[in-house]
Amino acid sequence: MPAPLIAGNWKMNGLAADLGEARALAAALAETPAGTRVALCPPATLLARMADALAESAVLVGGQDCHSEHAGAFTGDVSAEMLADAGARLVIVGHSERRAAYGEDDAQVAAKALAALRAGLEPIICVGETLAQREAGAALEVVARQVRGSVPAGLGETAFAVAYEPVWAIGTGLTPTIEAIEAVHAAIRRTLVEALGAAGARAPILYGGSVKPANAAEILGAAEVGGALVGGASLKAADFLAIIRAA
Ligand code: PGA
């Protein structure tokens, strides 16, 4: 089993002054190394500066999204190659906020994951059901369908992760029960193995949605939880560190 991956998603938060949080995190991990892989995904404007600030540390830097093309007339977009050039090692694709606000579908997410591979980045492919889908008893089916559509076949030989992020748990303080998390992670694992064989058995499946210091140990201890994707609690080094130490 690979070391757990604890990735922080800063979303549209962070100015130059906030790089101090990344430096504080790196300093703490240099003093007492973690048994996990750790990544921070800042907004694109901070990525190169954060990568420079963390160059000597074990903390990886990632993007929050990428375009599927390597370059071209796509005003406002950033390609996977650009992220890699700026110092990124990973990229989040298919976050529910992008699926909801920009209408990204599974095929687009799969194309972005392939673009990440092309650029040598490790994609973190996000899936997760809405509250209405959960209440209708469709969570496992929805998530399995998203995995089938969003994880491209070509991922087999390279590092990637899937993040299960129930939409209703993101930024709300709500989390599923441990049993519910384990049921979805087991369904994701089955779907990955069906699609990719041995490579599907290896990829870490992260949980995301209101992970905080108080619930991290229990969530990270659940079956098939191979790490966490952390939003709000990754903005402050002390909180994020407490989550990392809980793994
Ligand atoms: P949250 O966000 O930890 O603030 O709930 C998680 C995410 O959206 O990745």
Structural notes for this entry:
- By secondary structure, the chain is of the alpha/beta class.
- The protein has a single domain, classed as Alpha-Beta Barrel (TIM Barrel), CATH 3.20.20.
- 44% of the residues lie in helices and 15% in strands.
- It contains eleven helices and eight strands.
- It has helices at residues 19-31, 44-53, 80-85, 96-102, 106-118, 131-135, 139-150, 178-196, 198-202, 213-220, 237-246, and strands at 5-9, 37-41, 59-63, 90-93, 122-127, 161-164, 205-208, 227-230.
- An eight-stranded parallel β-barrel has the order 1-2-3-4-5-6-7-8, surrounded by seven helices.
- β2 (37-41), α2 (44-53) and β3 form a beta-alpha-beta unit.
- α1 runs parallel beside α11 (237-246), α5 (106-118) packs across α7 and α7 packs parallel to α8 (178-196).
- The model has no long low-confidence stretch (mean pLDDT 97).
- 2-phosphoglycolic acid binds at residues 9, 165, 170-171, 208-211, 229-233.
* SSE arrangement, N to C: EHEHEHEHHEHHEHHEHEH
CATH topology: TIM Barrel
Radius of gyration: 17 Å
Q: How would you sum up the major sheet?
A: 8 strands, parallel, barrel
Ligand species: 2-phosphoglycolic acid
Question: Overall pLDDT, averaged?
Answer: 97
Portion of residues in helices?
A: 40-55%
Shape estimate: globular
CATH class: Alpha Beta
| Count of discrete alpha- or pi-helical segments spanning 4 or more residues | 11
Q: Which stretches are poorly predicted, pLDDT < 50 over at least 5 residues? A: none
Q: Could you say which structural class the secondary elements and strand pairing correspond to?
A: alpha/beta
CATH superfamily: Aldolase class I
For the largest sheet, list the strands in their spatial order: 1-2-3-4-5-6-7-8
The strand count comes to 8
**Span from first to last CA?**
14 Å
Annotated CATH architecture: Alpha-Beta Barrel
